[in-house]
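Order emerges. For instance:

***
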Amino acid sequence: MPFHHSGEIKDSSKSLLKQQATVNEARCEKEENLVYSTGQKIFFMPRIIAVVNQKGGVGKTTTSINLGAYLAGLSQRVLLVDLDPQANATSGLGIDHKQLAKGIYEVLATDADVTEAIVPSSIPGLDVLPATLSLAGANIELVPLDRREFLLEDQLQKLADYDYIIIDSPPSLGLLTVNGLVAAREVLIPVQSEYYSLEGLGQLMETIELVKSNLQPDLKILGIVLTMYDPRFRLSSAVLEELYKYFPQEQIFKSVIPRNVRLAEAPSYGQTIVHYDPKSPGAKAYKKLAHEIHGTKKPS
């Protein structure tokens, strides 16, 4: 991306910028991070992944918090953004959202300092931009604001200290979800292994295409992950077969998340599966997914 400047830049400064650009290019080839520049300072942007499906109960939050935990376990600095007014990602990491003075709503609606709203989780390397009770009315209250679809992107661009930002989206295609899609560069779609989970995929893909065409041209599908898979039921295998019919093979993750009681229990204790039961089938599946995502190049 070209450097923006005002007035004349001395030859020595140009030389410095050229050297910085060369270093930046080499680092980007290695780490494949997006980059933007302001004056002479170069910022390395994190991979921003929105976990999206307008259908509820498909495992968005479970995927968001456990993926974040396992990426942090790979020595990555991870920020989990809780865009769901239910605040399940926040409470699922043991954070009492009722006691918080600031959260994602205050950042979006009042331009509160995003760094002051971020809280650490009990997992080293995993921070949270939490949801608070105020977020419930955001889909209506944010409508009159300028750049309403870009509110989250504008805030996340201030953060350069993370390797990954994972956005847990609400079960709708409203303004909060659109903000998540505009802020992200990659979309991870959890699909429950049940028949009705396939019906909403068409509408979701249309929404993603609309966002890409009108708001965020860099948005790409990272992939689809099948959740709550039970090999004992023929329907689970049938759903997986249908996914392969309509989506490219490279867009469907090999990691399949099983239906697992321990995964369902962990949030009630304010824990991810990493700490609650790291040897469970669900833990092993999310660990595999984290390695699969971390090992992939950004979709082109």
DSSP finds 14 helices and nine strands in the chain. Strands lie at 35-38, 41-44, 47-51, 78-82, 119-120, 126-129, 164-168, 186-192, 220-227.
